[in-house]
Every structure is written in structure tokens, then in C-alpha cells.
Amino acid sequence: MNRVFSPKNFMIMAGFIGGALAAFMTYHGNPANMGICIACFYRDIAGALGLHRAAIVQYLRPEIMGIALGAFLSALVFGEFRARGGSAPLVRFFLGAFFMIGALVFLGCPVRAVLRLAGGDLNAVAGLAGVVAGALMGIYFLKRGFNLGRWQSTYTAAGWLMPLFMLGLLLLAIARPSFIFFSKEGLGAAHALLGVSLAAGLIIGFLAQRTRMCFVGGWRDLFLVKDTYLFSGIVAFFAGALVVNAILGKINIGFAGQPVAHTNQLWNFLGMTLAGLTATLLGGCPLRQTVLAGEGDTDAGVAIMGMLAGAAFAHNFQLASSPQGPGPYGPTAVIIGLVFAAGVGFFMRESLD
């Protein structure tokens, strides 16, 4: 029995359930190949709060609040809630912002890259290759002493801020006051019922908190220390999504005509290289950052604030891509982000030799 419920087997089960649930969310109304996309959903939240003016991507996505609150409840129940922070917060803010810019040039986070591939979108291959390349760059810096500094325990009240922020967003999603923006068409208008979305988020948040699931950390650990624990969750997530897509008849193999995707493979690759590198330097993908914020990690909360700001910049300044290709200034922003992230990796080392 202990062998059946070993940590790795639990990770595989959690990954399969998460992938199946994410794919099934498209059946309930979420955009195709976007049942769960952490970057896309933070972008929609930024729009709902009026941080950007793209009217078709404005919605308070309950999945995000559910993930954070599910992780929070899990951490409380299992005694793992610890208020901590203070590890280079301003750097984390900018890394979070550049992560979001890279993800929106690709049109999806590492979670959505896996979901896109499970739906037959071969453009995701370039994106996943970029995640691996970014993780390898991050490993290069980690091996040479990169460190954002040690976190410190802080006031319990500080650790509650992000869970309370997420609860506040959830209450706004329920109340729908006039000062919150909700898309009337486009991606923001494509969503499951609030209760279904919240339930999916709570389940994924709980599972991700118990397993430490991370869609960049899996690649990092695979290449850095040859550990397949986190990577097995990525593979299982893909398998779960693939099975559900096959059952629902939602697999369309090819490059052209894929939902919310473009075929410029250079910027698919480089956008996700930036995402993979920044996530490695941050210590986890946006799913992992959301879970950590639910556990009381204020540094992860700062990274999330950076992601919201990055989403606002991406849509206010024409950095985000569209199905027609990269935005006018997206490639330039990706290059700037890669230079910034590489500079962080090089200069923030315990010893400069």
C-alpha cells in the first residue's frame, strides 16, 4: 500500500488528474487548448482590474483564486503554512513581469504549452523547446552560484496577504461590480461557470501544494540532478489531457489554424526561452508561484504582482502576440528580457569569478 501511494506515484496521479481536469474545462466553456493557463488567466485578471485596455481578455478567472486558496487550505491543514519573504523582492517583480511578456509572445505559459501539445498543436514543440533552453540557461547560472538571497520568517499577517487578495478577487468575481471589466466577446467571454472553475482550481491547488508540481522545475531537476519526480508530473499531466481530448474529439494535429496560437517558431521558441529562464531564476513556474503565495511566501506574491504588471505592459504596449504573429514590439521586449534575466543570473552570484 505504501508503494502504491509513494510520493512519485502520487505525483503521477496528481499530474494525470490535473491534466484531465484542465482539458475537461474546455468542454465547460474555457477557450480551446486553454483549459488552465496560468499566464493567460493572470492576463485576464489584469484586464478585469483595468490594468490593460484589451477588451477581449478581461475576466476574473476563478481558477487562479481556486489554485491559491486550495494551496492555502492544504498548507494550513498539513501544517505547511509559513510566512516568509525578503529575498530580492524588486528583482522578483521584474523577473515576473518579463516571464509574462515571454509567455504572451508565445501565447501561453509552460502549463498551456503542454495542453496545446496534447491538443495536437505542433507549435507547442517550439515553445517547450524554449522552456528547456531557458531552464538549461538557468541551470548554468545555478551551477555558478546564482542566488536571490535567503528568505526570512516574517509576520504571519504578511503571509495571509495573498490568500486574502485572492479571496477578495473571488468576491469581486461573484459580485461583478460595475468597476470590474468583463469581456463581452473573445477569450475573456469564454469561460466555465464560476462554481465549476473555482472547484477545478481548488483541486489543482490542493494537488499542486501536496506534490510541489512545477512545469519548469521538472525540466530543471531532470537536467540538473537527474531527478524525475517533478518531470513525471509534467508527463502525467500531458497524458491526462491527451486522454480527455481524445475522448472529446478535440485533437487537431498540425501547425496552422490552431486555437490562440501563431506559427512564428522563432518567437515561440525565444518567448518561452525567456519564460523558462525567468521561472528557473524565480524558483518555479507561475503555477508554483501561485501555490507558494498560498503557503505564505511573500516573495512569490511579489512575482505574481510582477506578472500582473507584465500582462498590463504586454497589452498596453503591443508586446503580446495574436494568431497573426508576434506584436510589433514583442520581439524587442523578449530580447530585453533575456538580457535582463541573464544579467540577474550573472551578477547575483555568491561569488563573482
Automatic annotation (TrEMBL):
* UniProt keyword annotation of Chloroplast present: no
Could you tell me the superkingdom of the organism this chain comes from? Bacteria
The record's InterPro entries line, in alphabetical order, gives: Seleno_YedE, Sulf_transp_TsuA/YedE
Keywords noted in UniProt: Membrane, Transmembrane, Transmembrane helix
- Does the record's keyword annotation contain rRNA processing? no
Q: Where are the transmembrane segments?
A: 9-27, 64-81, 93-118, 124-142, 154-175, 187-208, 229-249, 269-287, 299-317, 329-348
Please identify the protein, giving its name as recorded: Sulphur transport domain-containing protein
Species of origin: Neomoorella thermoacetica (Clostridium thermoaceticum)
